Amino acid sequence: MQEKLAKITSADIYIEDHGILTFTVVVDYEDFGCQGIGGYSLDTWDKKRDRRVGTAYGCDMILRLLKALGVNKLSEAKGNKVWVLGEGEGFSFKPKGIRGLSVDGIKKEDALIFEDVYKAFKDET
């Protein structure tokens, strides 16, 4: 997996127009353009309740995102430099995770790899 240096220009947790809870971290890369990272559904449809409900997966994703970025609130991430972990080059780069810089006190093991969180909770969703 490659690491691309980037600066966070915005970060937010919100409900999409489809009613799905998600997050997006927009980054400006050191070596090319900008990109939105995230967009994962943090909730699920509950037939019994006839509405969307929160999930342990979504809560863990948010918790691990905050830890990976070294912030207490997602709004604090704006302006921070991060490593975006992924595969590919240039505009074909596909983000697989994110973590703050070691010089900011973020440990490499605190990196958030999106697929790892999914795998940990896939049987519960």
Question: Key features?
Answer:
two-stranded antiparallel sheet; alpha+beta; 125 residues; 2 helices
The share of residues in extended strands comes to 35-45%
* Portion in helices: 10-25%
Rg, Cα atoms, Å: 15 Å
Adjacency order of strands in the biggest sheet: 3-2-1-6-7-8
Low-pLDDT stretches are none
Order of helices and strands: EEEEEHEEEH
Judged by helices, strands and strand pairing, the structural class is alpha+beta
How many separate helices?
2
Shape: globular
Major sheet size, sense and barrel closure: 6 strands, antiparallel
- How many beta strands in the DSSP annotation? 8
Summarize the structure.
By secondary structure, the chain is α+β, with helices and mostly antiparallel strands.
Task: Annotate the secondary structure layout.
Layout: E1 2-15, E2 21-29, E3 34-38, E4 43-46, E5 51-54, H1 56-69, E6 81-87, E7 94-100, E8 112-113, H2 114-121
Antiparallel strand pairs: 1-2, 1-6, 2-3, 4-5, 6-7, 7-8
